[in-house]
Amino acid sequence: MAYSLDNISAVSSSNSNTGKFYMYKEAETLANMRASGYFDNAVDAGLDADDVIMLIGSDGIGFNQVNVSGSTYTLDEAITST
Fold first, then answer.
1. Angle, vertex CA 72, rays to CA 71 and CA 76, nearest 5
2. Where are the beta strands (DSSP E) in 1-82?
3. Domain 5-81 has what CATH class?
4. Of 35, 39, 61, 71, which residue is 20 to 30 A from 27 by alpha carbon distance?
5. pLDDT tens digits, the chain, 82 residues: what are they?
6. Domain-by-domain residue ranges, the chain?
């Protein structure tokens, strides 16, 4: 399954210095959602480097920091609960 703009929502907004917090829910594993490039189209939702995203997947919940290299988005694992 691929990233869907319908499944992401901003939980909080902030000034440009502190980043934003998002929630993303999908019937996909955390590992698949954390794969490099999975969130490349998330720029449409406003996702930026250093934002935090909570993933709710088929195998648990994870909190991740967003990294951007060029046009490729990756997620660093921070906390996972299964």
1. 140
2. 8-12, 21-25, 52-57, 60-69, 72-81
3. mainly beta
4. 71
5. 678 989 999 898 766 677 889 999 999 999 999 998 899 888 778 888 889 999 999 999 999 999 988 888 888 877 777 6
6. 5-81
